[in-house]
Each structure stands twice: as structure tokens, then as C-alpha cells.
Amino acid sequence: MTDQALADLTRRLPELRLLTDAGDLEHYGRDWTRRWTPAPLAIALPASVEDVQGIVRWANEYKVAVVPSGGRTGLSGGAVAAHGELVLSLERMNRVLGFDAVDRTLTVQPGIALEAVHGAAREHGLIYPVDFAARGSCSIGGNIATNAGGIRVIRYGNTREWIAGLKVVAGNGELLDLNRGLIKNSSGYDLRQLMIGSEGTLGIVVEATLRLTDPPPPSQVMLLALPDMDALMQVFALFRRKLSLQAFEFFTDVALKHVLAHGAQRAIDGEHPYYVVTEFDAPDERAHEAALAAFEQGVKQGLINDGVMAQSDAQAAALWRLREGITESLAPHKPYKNDISVRVSAVPAFLHEIQALLTREYPHIEVVWFGHIGDGNLHINVLKPVSLSDADFITQCEHVTKLLAQTLQGHGGSISAEHGIGLVKRSYLESTRSLQEIALMRGVKQVFDPNGLLNPGKMFP
């Protein structure tokens, strides 16, 4: 029956590529979590919107679940296919479709890499400002599905601020054209924004119109070494008051140890418990002087131990590598990841609580912290000891995550800042959303995907 169904799919859509090789099933059936054994039915690679519509209509007829797939760089299990689903990979739909100089928008297909979007915007003297370390491998469709943030949220906000319009194939195969690039549109519900962050559970993005903006003025990158955790937010407040910040990222001495072992170069001598990489507008000498004044004030107040300012683009890239290279350097250690957020004003009290929690619950396990402290987003990476089995390690981490979710609930925070809920965090959704909200979300899912075939099992507990 399965063979007949797949044969019917390829008969209906002659331009569709369908993969069933074991290696392809494994490759496309998982994301960066690596926690679930991939077991998809097959991998469908459409080349057009019509192909995507045909796949979804076929799936409804044969009652086959569909997992939309982009770059699969997610860390929440949102792109995992472990129960015979059809993976719908959008990697062939990876072109720039158009640029509008008046509207300053770029229309693209969902499979295009974020880095390629950056390049296309630069060709027109503009930028698409959403950015993060996985820019070379993540896709714009996946960014939209998770409302990705990254290192410049402090200046530009999340992905949703930069989506002017979307074309989406809903769960019944119908094509929705949402917002159509309008700046003002008060004609009813904004379904475009509903799709952003929906993790492929409501529809499949097949085209996106992105807003572009002017490049920022020349900038300067500085690395700071701080004496303790309390200094983090005080230095942030000091620099935000005196400078126009583009980014403000922190990491710990433990994170630095792993990045240095992975090939990065030390930029500040000595051992310090906390570090900050900050980038700020520096169009003239006055901005440089303001940065030095802020640094000197921080040193005088005992908030900063040491620092270095980049003297070239190469040195700026080297300083950023100390932050952006963390995830790659930790990958061999099979980290269990928490991606959490609280209001920026709640960060100081929250940091103390979770530091006590993690110290108590992981007395013999290495924990690596880093994140976008300027927007209240923290990444906690728990490194698996060699002596501990995968199953026992996950069990212990899930116990701690439950405690962490309770702490977040007390601070009005979120169990997922920018990676989505997926499979990993669905048990903790109630710590962020009320039961009434979850019921409404389920109702929305039913409207857009009446047969429950789009990314089933993701998001909801």
C-alpha cells in the first residue's frame, strides 16, 4: 500500500524528487538534536509551489503526516521525522524571486540560506538584518517557522519584524497570500504573523517577502572581561546609555575554554569568569571616545577587569569567533540545550536563581552558559559525561528542565526564546502559556490543518 501511494505521488508530480535510500532517510529525518532515531517514510523535494500543494493534497488523501524541512539546524526536534512521516524538504526552492527598489523588499523561496539572503541584499546596497552563527546552513523558511532571533535582536528585533508578506500552503493544500507586502493593513486578523513561529504546524511557507533596511554606520567591536555575574547587566546599562549598541553578547570562562580548544585565539590575558562581546555604532572619533569613556568608567567602578577593542576587520571577526564558535565547539560533547528568556529587567534576579539551581542539580556535570543578554535570552548547555549513558543523561536533564521551567514561570519567562518548542520542550509549554492559550492554539491548528497532518506531535504536549 505504501509503495502504491508513493508511486501515485510521483505520477501526479513528475517534477518531484522522491528519495527513499536509507542514508537519505537518516540525513533528512533529523535535526541538530540527534536525540531521535529518524524513520521517515520518504523524502519529497518539490521544485514549485504547485508541487508543495500537490504533496499536501496527496497527504490528506492517503492520511500521511508531513514534516516540513529546511536547513534542519534547529535544536528543539521540530524537524524530526521518527514515525513514518513524509519529509517535505524545501531545499530545491532556494532562489531569489525579485527585488523591489521602492518598497525595499526581497522576495525569496523558503529554501534559500540566510547567508545567501544577506548577499542578495548587499547587491542592492541594503541589508537583511537578522543574523546568527548558523547563517550558512539555516534556511529562511526555518527562520520564519521559529521566529529566529540571533545576535542583533537588540537593534533589529526578531524575524517577524522583517516579514512583509508570506505565501503559505495550508493543511488542506490551499495557497494563502498573506499581507502582500503592505506596510499598513488593518483589514482583519494578520494571519502572516500567526504563521511566523508556528513551526510548520499550520502551513508550509513557500514564498517570503522580506523587508530590507539601510546598512548600519561603521561599527566597532569590543571584548570585555568581567569579574562576576552581577557586573553583566550593570555593564550593559552603562554601554547602552553611552553608545548605540548593535549587539551585546555574553559567555563564561567555561565557554571560552571550549572555543579556545577548538582553534580560536585568546584575546585577553588571564582568567576571568565572564566575558562580553559588544558591537556598537562608531561613525566618528566621538563614538570611539565615548566607548573608551564607558570602558574606563566600568573599570573605575569595578565592573570591568580588562578589555580589547578591535583594530581591524580581521580582529573584529576573531573577537566574534569567541562567541559564535561556542556551539560548534560544544557539539562533540552531545550537549543538552536550554534556550530560555525573561524580561531584560528580570535578568539579574533570574541569573542568581538559575545559577543556584544548576550548581545544585549538576554538581559533577559541566554546564556552559552564553547568550544574548541584551534581550534577555540565555543559552544553557549541559555537557554529557562520558561515563553517563544517553538515556540516563536525558532523564537527569529533563528533571532539571522541569525545575527550570518552574523558575521561568515565576519570572514570567519563556522556555523557548528562539528555537521553538518542537519535541524537546512540548512538556514544558504550560510554564509559558496558560491552559486557555493552549486550548486556543489547538483550535487554530484544527482550522488550518483539519486532519492534523502538518508536523504532528510538535509543539503541543
Automatic annotation (TrEMBL):
Entries under SUPFAM superfamilies matching the protein = FAD-binding/transporter-associated domain-like, FAD-linked oxidases, C-terminal domain
Signal peptide, first to last residue: none
InterPro entries the UniProt entry points to: FAD-bd_oxidored_4_C, FAD-bd_PCMH, FAD-bd_PCMH-like_sf, FAD-bd_PCMH_sub2, FAD-linked_Oxase-like_C, FAD-oxidored/transferase_4, Oxid_FAD_bind_N, Vanillyl_alc_oxidase_C-sub2
Q: Which UniProt keywords apply?
A: FAD, Flavoprotein, Oxidoreductase
Keyword Flavoprotein on entry: yes
Q: Name one Pfam family in it.
A: FAD-oxidase_C
Recorded hits in Gene3D superfamilies, A to Z, give: 3.30.465.10, 3.30.70.2190, 3.30.70.2740, Vanillyl-alcohol Oxidase, Chain A, domain 4
Q: What name appears for this protein in its UniProt entry?
A: FAD-binding oxidoreductase
Q: Where is the FAD-binding PCMH-type domain?
A: 36-215
Similarity comment: family membership: Belongs to the FAD-binding oxidoreductase/transferase type 4 family.
> Organism classification, top ranks?
Bacteria, Pseudomonadati, Pseudomonadota, Gammaproteobacteria, Lysobacterales
- Name the needed cofactors: FAD
